[in-house]
From TrEMBL:
Organism of derivation: Didymodactylos carnosus
Cited InterPro entries: Cytoplasmic_FMR1-int
Name this protein carries in UniProt: Uncharacterized protein
GO molecular function: small GTPase binding
Lineage summary: Eukaryota, Metazoa, Spiralia, Gnathifera, Rotifera
Xref: Pfam families: FragX_IP
Top-rank taxon: Eukaryota
GO biological process, one term: regulation of actin filament polymerization
Length: 276
């Protein structure tokens, strides 16, 4: 809760600080506000007078004139960063996400299924929960654990780590393009849907189902907010980077496939005989 409050206070203060920086840097960057001109007065003449008045304060021209080549490049980059910071919404958050995505995709631990056994790899990826290389399965198990209510004398995951643990897990899931599968196959979400339909209030192994599902609901809302925040920076690249081969069409079960997969049907391979 305190993390959310601090972010709500920090965002407008950061915007005010950036506006203040731009206003203070304007005279040194030849950013002169448009003056008021009466009827019959030339606006261009007034602007030229102001440019001549503040010409001695243009830091970029002065450094290029009196400094070396390296200093000239640095002052150009600093000037561009100050000018475009608010105009194009320049932020290092998107660059950081792309860098983390590169690290994840280069490491075969996150994307390679070679470590799985042959018997598991031949099975359907939707049913593979015992041995998997998909991170969203691992995170589902972790989330199922910390969604369980703790005793009054113990610390829960929010008190220990705040929302940082959720943000880290959801960020990795989103960068690996597994967010839709996570929302569909998550264990805690499935339990919440079942409890919402049957409305049971039992206590299983000293765990209260109403308290358990209430924590699941809170974490589900938090995860949705985190994914929405990440989608603002990753939505323009997610559609192009999802390959077509991730779409798997599962054929419906037929009598032939059931007879071929169930051993009791395979034993009856001999010709049918009539007792009549």
């Amino acid at each position: 809760m305190w993390d959310s409050v601090s972010r709500m206070i920090q965002r407008p203060s950061q915007s005010q600080e950036e506006v203040k920086d731009l206003l203070q840097a304007a005279p040194f960057q030849n950013l002169i506000p448009r003056p008021y001109a009466k009827e019959g007065e030339s606006l261009e003449i007034k602007i030229r007078r102001l440019e001549a008045k503040y010409a001695a304060m243009q830091i970029v021209a002065i450094v290029k004139k009196l400094g070396n080549e390296k200093q000239g490049k640095l002052i150009e980059e600093a000037d561009l960063l100050t000018r475009e910071r608010l105009c194009i919404g320049l932020t290092t958050f998107e660059v950081m996400l792309e860098r983390i995505r590169t690290f994840l995709l280069e490491d075969p631990v996150w994307t390679d299924s070679s470590s799985s056994s042959t018997s598991i790899s031949s099975a359907s990826p939707l049913n593979n929960i015992d041995d998997t290389f998909e991170f969203h399965r691992v995170w589902s198990a972790i989330q199922f654990v910390y969604c369980q209510p703790v005793k009054e004398t113990d610390f829960n995951v929010e008190q220990l780590f705040g929302e940082g643990l959720n943000f880290a897990g959801c960020t990795i899931i989103r960068l690996l393009n597994q967010h839709r599968r996570f929302e569909t196959y998550d264990f805690a979400y499935h339990l919440f849907k079942v409890n919402r339909s049957d409305q049971k209030e039992d206590e299983v192994k000293n765990v209260s189902l109403p308290a358990f599902t209430e924590r699941i609901r809170k974490f589900q809302i938090l995860n949705q907010q985190i994914f929405a925040c990440l989608n603002k920076y990753l939505c323009h690249t997610s559609l192009d980077e999802i390959p077509v081969d991730q779409i798997k069409c599962l054929t419906p079960m037929t009598l032939q496939t059931i007879q071929a997969s169930v051993p009791i049907y395979q034993q009856r391979t001999g010709p049918a005989t009539s007792e009549c």
